[in-house]
Specification:
five-stranded antiparallel sheet, alpha+beta, about 50% helix, 3 helices, elongated, 5 strands
Length: about 120
């Protein structure tokens, strides 16, 4: 095998490895954006931003619920949720606090397959 062929083969391998790394980085970015990899707590879905805003004002002033975020799900609905919860026990504790405020609550597992009402 000539030096030119060896260089060409090495370059092909490097390009392939870089493509794999780029794909892996993209997948991780997509999963992070979707909230995959950490627990999440959904605290109701509302038809209007005003309604969600009123509920958000109530919840963000509640100890233990200060990390509530407003997430637009469609053009017509808005969801309140706490993202990047470290574990299931913490997610369930957040639900107990929310339920004490008479707010519906749903714990969503990192894989999203294990959504469970609590």
């Amino acid at each position: 095998m000539s030096i030119g062929q060896s260089f060409s083969r090495a370059r092909s391998h490097i390009v392939f490895i870089l493509a794999l790394l780029s794909a892996a980085a993209y997948i991780l970015w997509v999963e992070r954006e979707r909230g995959v990899g950490s627990w999440r707590v959904e605290l109701g879905e509302y038809e209007s931003g005003e309604e969600a805003g009123r509920q958000w004002d109530l919840l963000r002033s509640t100890p233990g619920l200060h990390a509530v975020q407003i997430v637009r799900t469609t053009d017509k609905s808005v969801r309140l949720e706490v993202r990047e919860v470290s574990n299931e026990a913490t997610a369930r504790r957040i639900c107990r606090i929310a339920r004490a405020k008479r707010v519906e609550c749903l714990v969503v597992s990192p894989l999203k397959a294990g959504a469970s009402a609590t």
